[in-house]
Write a structure and sequence with these properties.
Layout: H1 6-20, E1 26-31, E2 34-39, E3 42-48, E4 51-54, H2 59-69, E5 72-76, E6 79-87, H3 94-114
Antiparallel strand pairs: 1-2, 2-3, 3-4, 4-6, 5-6
Helix pairs in contact: 1-3
């Protein structure tokens, strides 16, 4: 199943990538029907149609992002997981979620430096 519609998300993707792909070591690739972003081989998050899933946020940040933006649990193959889809209605919404994406990036990039 495809969770990411390139045509609907082209402008949002451009705005997101202008910021995130400028960070050292970040790359993207399509996987499992989504457009995924990585630092090294660690997930930062992935774009889905009309939203973004930021990986492994702390409980505090997860609560904050849910309260601030709403959204819903991510469903794949009929299973609902702990991952949360934060809605992105358009490119203007990208700037508001970037701080959460940045927190995830800083977490995975700092653990790499310690290893």
């Amino acid at each position: 199943m495809k969770y990411y519609d390139e045509e609907k998300m082209i402008e949002t993707r451009k705005a997101f990538e202008a910021e995130v792909l400028a960070w050292k070591g970040v790359s993207s690739r399509p996987m499992m029907g989504c457009l995924c972003y990585f630092y090294d081989r660690k997930f930062i998050g992935f774009l889905v149609t009309n939203g973004i899933v930021v990986m492994k946020l702390s409980e505090k940040n997860q609560s904050e992002i849910k309260e601030k933006f709403g959204g819903k649990p991510f469903e794949m193959a009929g299973q609902t997981g702990r991952l949360w889809v934060t809605p992105l209605k358009g490119p203007k919404d990208v700037k508001s979620v970037i701080p959460f994406v940045r927190k995830r990036y800083e977490e995975v990039s700092s653990t790499r430096a310690k290893a």
